[in-house]
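Q: Joint fold for the lines below.
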Amino acid sequence: MKLITHNMLTSKILKNVVTGYPLKIHAVKAELKKADFQPDFIARMIKKIDYKTLYQAAETLGYAEGMPKTEILNEEDMNNEETLKKLHEVLLEIEVIEGDLECPETGRKFPINNGIPNMLVNEEEL
Amino acid sequence: MSRPEHTGPPELFYNEKEAKKYTANNHIIEVQTKLTERALELLALPDDEPCFLLDIGCGSGLSGQTLSDNGHYWAGVDISSHMLDVAVDSEVEGDLVLGDMGQGLPFRAGSFDGAISISAIQWLCNVDKKSHNPIKRMAKFFTTLYAVLARGSRAVFQLYPETPDQLELLTQQAMKAGFTGGVIVDYPNSTKAKKLFLCLFTGPSNQPMPKALTGNEVQQNNQVRFESKREKFREKAIKKGRQWILDKKERQRRQGKEVRQDTKYTGRKRSKAF
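A: Joint structure:
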């Protein structure tokens, strides 16, 4: 699971969960996998993602160094090549291979196996 | 045509063996690529802009591969963990999530610039477990899909409905969830090449529907020929004659088949030497 996906994932499908966001990451194994750098895409996605969540996620995995610390990114950050490269690494290159995602409201855990988060729930939980 | 939907739930049908078989089959790869390219065309994304897309029922990532080739990033959801394992092994560029579309999509609002789904949503019509209620599952799926799409974006589903009722039910549930749009039928004159796409819009309802492919796009123009001298009956051409051959070729073109160009040699008698 890449952090761009983590930034979008919620546990809202569970019964009685209102926002279910952000999911807490408990990583057992994480890897860096190289991906093509497309500055346009990063600059566009940065407006969409929840930066606070991304920063926290990167911090838990130990990759936050070099990321802008502000809660909302300003124009300058978005045009800075170095910053975009760092954000590219955080969004698209870090992969959580084994671990758990935890719902912030119910504490329900979604296991991550082979890099794939398992978001299947039982019928009783819907 | 055999229908895997009849044999059992998708997570059991696409087991390790079936998943490998599916991904190794050249014919399936070709068909999936073509369908994805057409779906991408129907999505009408802005030119030269890398987008973040959702692939529903991404399976082993065949359709996702086409998305990556077109410069987009994607996340895929599928219910079969074996299919997803094959996708991981083939190192697809997208990100994968194990999930059941009938339980709702586990993403936050406005996440994606568009969604595609190739030959997957007909599975929603099935009752694989006692607790399954197809209408409820469809409603859940479409309402969560509507939420996770960015305003103004589209969702395109290629599907093989078993009966017209199924298609109607799916469209109805999508409209209830707030989508506009409808069904596009490519190559309607052919039983084999015919393809159905459910094209859904989240934006304003006055968007024009894209045109379906019929196989004779080139010849289309808006003029009506010979308005005053309309023929009353068209006599059938003599069998094996030039006109008969031309008619037949035209018919096959309409069915989307590959047909040789008409030339002065078409239907000409061979010399005696043969």
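Q: Anything notable?
A: Chain A has five helices and four strands. The longest helix of chain A spans residues 81-93.
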